[in-house]
Amino acid sequence: MAALLSRLFAWGPDFEGSTRALGIIRIGLALLIWTRLADEVAFFLAENISLVLVGIYFYVFTTMMLLGIYTRVAVPMVALVLAFMFFFFGKLGLRPWEFHHVYLLVASTALLSFTPSGRSYSVDRLRALRQAERDGTLPPVEYSPLWGQRLMCLQLSALYFWTAVDKLNWAFISGQRLEATLLFEFAGLPLEPWVTHPIFVVPASLFVIALEFTLAFTIHVRRLQPIVLPLGILMHIAFFLLVPVYTFSLTMILLYLAVLDPNVVHRFLDRIQGHAPTPRHL
Amino acid sequence: MSFEGLRTNNQAICRRIAFAIISLLIFLPPAIPIVFGNKVHWIKGWQMYHDAGLGLLKGEFAIYRGEIVIKRLSPLQVIDLQRYPFVKGISAKFTQVVHARADLKIYAAELCSKMAADERLAYAGLASTHDGWINIDSDDVCGGTP
Fold first, then answer.
1. Please, is A259 exposed, middle or buried when counting C-beta atoms within 10 Å of its C-beta (0-12, 13-18, 19+)?
2. Which of A42, A73, A201, B27 could form a disulfide with A179 if both were Cys (CB 3.0 to 4.6 A apart)?
3. Beta bridge partners of A73
4. How far, in Å, CA of A192 to CA of A175, rounded?
C-alpha cells in the first residue's frame, strides 16, 4: 500500500519535469481562445458596458498569457474571465458560449493556472535570463513541479471516460444517434447519403465508444502512447471534419502534449532546434 | 527536522491534498448528469452532442389529392430550408423539432395553411429521440390524425 501510494505521489502531486511542453500548451490555448472568442468580445459587439469591460479584461490578460507576461497572474485571470463568460453569459443565454468546446477552454486554462507555464517560451523567461546575466549567475532552469500538468492529464481521462459512458445506450451503439447527429449537419448536402448510411454510422459509433474508453486509461501509459495518441488525433480530426466541434478537436490535440513525458519533449525541442540536449537547461 | 525541511514537508502534504481534491472535482461532477440523468444547471457533464439531432425527421411527406400523390417533399422542403441552421462553425438552435406524431401538425403548419381544401398531407417516416428512431407515420398531418 505504501509503495502504491508512493508511486501515485511520484506520478501526480510530486511530479517534476521540464516546463517547455507547458509553455507550448499556454501559447496554443491562448491562440485557441482568441480563435473562438476574441471577435465576439470586440467592442463593436458590446451592447452594454459590462461587455466592454469583459472585452478589455479579455484582451489584456489573453495577450499577457500568449506572450507569457506575468504568467502566474495572467493565466488565472484568463481562467476567471472565461469562467464568467461561460457560466454567466453562456448559461444565461446572453451569448452562444455555453458549449463543450468553450468549457474545455475554461477547464484547461483553469488547470494551467496551477502550472509554471511561463517558465518557458515567455517574456517572463526572457526577463529571468536577463536578470541572470546581470547577476552573473547561471540561467534559470526550465524545470519545476508539474502537478498541474498531471491534473490536465486527468481532465483528459475524465472527459474520455464520461463521454464514453454517456454513449453506452442502444440508441448510440446501434448507430441511430450518430445518424441523427450527422443528418442534422449533412441534410441537403452531397455527402448526406454516405455519412448517414448504416455501413458508416454503426461501425463509427462502436469505434468511437471503444476508442474513448481506451484513451481514458491508456493515454498515460508511455509504451502505448505511440499507438493510442495517433488514433486519438485521427478521431479528433474526423470529428472536426464531420461535425462543427469548432476549437474542440484542436484543443484536445494540443492537450495531448500534457500526457507526453515532459523531459522527452524538452530533449526533442533541443534536437529540432539543432543543439545538443544540455542537462543544465532541464 | 530543520525549519526548511519541515516547510518542504508541509508544502508536499498541502500539494497532495490539493491534488486529491481537484482530481475529485475533475472526475465526480461530470458523473451527476450522466449517471443520474438529470441536468444540473451549473455542472457541465462531458455529454458532447448528447442532444444533437433530436427531433429530426427521417422520411417523406406526400401531398395527396384524393388517393393520388401530387407532390413528394423532404422534411427540409416542408419547412422551406436548404439545410439545418448553422452559424459560425456551430450548429445553431433548431426549434422546429418533432418529438411525437402530434408535433407534425405544428412542423408543417405553414404548408398546411397553403394547401387546398381537397388536399391532404401525409408523412411516412421516423423521428429522432434519445432512444433512437420512432415511427410517427401520419395519413393526415394537417388534421392531426395518425
1. buried
2. A201
3. none
4. 15
Per-residue model confidence as pLDDT tens digits over B80-101: 998 888 766 565 678 888 999 9
State pTM to two decimals. 0.92
* Rounded Cα–Cα distance for residues A237 and A216 (Å): 18
* CB-CB neighbors (< 8 A) of B8 in chain A: none
Question: What is the ipTM, given to two decimal places?
Answer: 0.90
- The candidate with the shortest Cα–Cα distance to A38, out of B42, B45, B87, B88, is B88
CB contact under 8 Å between A188 and B76, yes or no, is: yes
For chains A and B, CB pairs below 8 A equal 125
Which chain A residues have a beta carbon less than 8 Å from that of B31? Answer: 162, 165
- Per-residue pLDDT tens over the stretch A268-277: 999 998 877 6
The grid cell for B105 is 401538425
Locate the chain B residue with the closest alpha carbon to A246: B89
Question: To the nearest 10°, the Cα dihedral for A15, A19, A20, A26?
Answer: 110
| E strand or H helix at B65 | strand B57-65
User: How far away is chain B from the Cα of A155, in angstroms, using its nearest Cα?
Assistant: 6
C-alpha cell of residue A151? 491534473
Task: Evaluate whether A100 touches A77 at the Cβ level (below 8 Å).
Answer: no
Interface subset of A 8-27, CB within 8 angstroms of B: 9, 12-14
